[in-house]
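Tokens in:
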């Protein structure tokens, strides 16, 4: 296969191009394109991982296993939307700065969620190509009917308990897909239980390691993103790496194991069940996405026109000065000063100062313009004011104010996170 090196180089070039384009849009803060950074970041990165697999083995998901890849991308959607459905009850994370167009938002979400299974399984595949853990052996596990029933029942229990006791048992939801191992084992699909029965633990160890690996990439990509997720896991809202509570990283290895179990289950469906299952997956994913857009997406990207201190003429003047977004306005104020912006836009310094305070507040932890306006109505005009608030008392004020205005009030966890982040940042300059 003399063309193999060429195909490998093309894969690397494509991965770097896609990843680089997304990074450039993010760094240059290109409006609209900077909000979808997650998609080019992950697809470009996965192309690079696939190229590494190809370099080691001569075959890969993009080369010789494309059907499996397309199945993986498709089944990622119901796999991840199951967790999104649970989160509608658990409220352990939420999304900020959602896109303005619901159709574009839904399409972008589908592209993003389609990478979940590949994120877990590509890394495991690369570790296998490197021969990681290949010589590891363990004491053979005796797989009896009682164990299979126990695994299946545990999976069901891990659904029920988090929904019944969301504050205490929320972490169990990540173990749910592992309950499918009982089915995989019985019908002869690839199975971790069968591996352990034969004394082979290499695949399990690779999946656990792949989960940690994926976690670093996931959270590293999410941290600088505009449209992103923020965690509010009970008891773990303080110490974080990127946006993830430190203890939360322990969930990613479990997620990777569950990803393998679910994908093995989906690929092993009898032929007569595949189309109905695929249709059910589409209906389920669509229904949950509607719920996510309504309940889990907590803010939309702020616009200059949403800043209360700016009328239409002032908005146009600031745009004519080369500042098209609140993000750019906040950056320009920090870099060159309010007076310089006021001079370029031919606007009063006081107008620009108020607009900058409003922009900083709207951008703070992704709260958005409407929540920032609610804070200002409650007497919190900037981040320095926010840092001095007591979260529970502030929430009560905001909730009452939102109800009087007919708005959706912020959640207590959101308010705690805003105040904590303001305090960590030193209160921010009241420019």
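Residues out:
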């Amino acid at each position: 296969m003399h063309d193999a090196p060429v195909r490998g180089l093309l894969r690397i070039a494509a991965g770097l191009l896609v990843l680089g384009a997304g990074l450039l849009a993010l760094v240059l803060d290109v409006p609209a394109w900077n909000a979808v950074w997650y998609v080019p970041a992950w697809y470009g990165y996965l192309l690079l991982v696939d190229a590494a697999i190809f370099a080691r083995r001569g075959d890969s998901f993009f080369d010789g296993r494309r059907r499996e890849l397309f199945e993986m991308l498709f089944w990622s959607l119901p796999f991840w939307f199951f967790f999104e459905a649970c989160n509608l009850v658990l409220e352990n994370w939420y999304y900020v700065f959602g896109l303005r167009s619901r159709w574009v938002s839904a399409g972008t979400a589908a592209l993003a969620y389609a990478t979940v299974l590949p994120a877990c399984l590509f890394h495991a595949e690369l570790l296998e190509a490197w021969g990681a853990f290949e010589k590891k052996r363990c004491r053979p596990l005796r797989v009896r009917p009682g164990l299979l029933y126990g695994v299946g029942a545990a999976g069901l229990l891990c659904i029920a308990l988090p929904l019944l006791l969301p504050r205490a048992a929320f972490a169990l939801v990540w173990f749910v897909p592992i309950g499918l191992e009982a089915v995989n084992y019985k019908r002869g699909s690839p199975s971790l239980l069968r591996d352990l029965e034969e004394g082979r633990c290499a695949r399990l160890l690779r999946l656990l390691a792949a989960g940690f690996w994926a976690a670093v990439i996931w959270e590293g990509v999410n941290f600088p993103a505009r449209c992103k997720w923020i965690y509010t896991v009970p008891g773990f809202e303080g110490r974080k790496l990127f946006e993830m509570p430190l203890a939360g990283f322990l969930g990613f290895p479990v997620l990777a194991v569950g990803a393998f179990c679910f994908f093995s289950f989906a690929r092993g469906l009898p032929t007569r069940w595949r189309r109905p299952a695929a249709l059910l997956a589409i209906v389920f994913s669509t229904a949950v996405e509607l719920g996510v857009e309504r309940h889990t997406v907590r803010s939309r990207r702020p616009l200059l026109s949403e800043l209360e201190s700016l009328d239409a003429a002032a908005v146009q003047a600031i745009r004519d000065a080369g500042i098209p977004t609140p993000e750019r306005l906040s950056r320009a104020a920090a870099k060159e000063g309010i007076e310089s912006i006021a001079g370029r836009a031919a606007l009063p310094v006081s107008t620009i100062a108020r607009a900058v305070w409003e922009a900083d507040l709207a951008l703070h932890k992704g709260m958005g313009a409407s929540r920032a306006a609610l804070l200002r109505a409650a007497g919190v005009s900037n981040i320095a004011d926010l840092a001095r608030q007591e979260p529970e008392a502030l929430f009560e004020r905001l909730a009452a104010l939102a109800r009087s205005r007919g708005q959706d009030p912020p959640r207590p966890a959101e308010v705690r996170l805003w105040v904590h982040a303001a305090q960590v940042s030193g209160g921010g300059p009241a420019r």
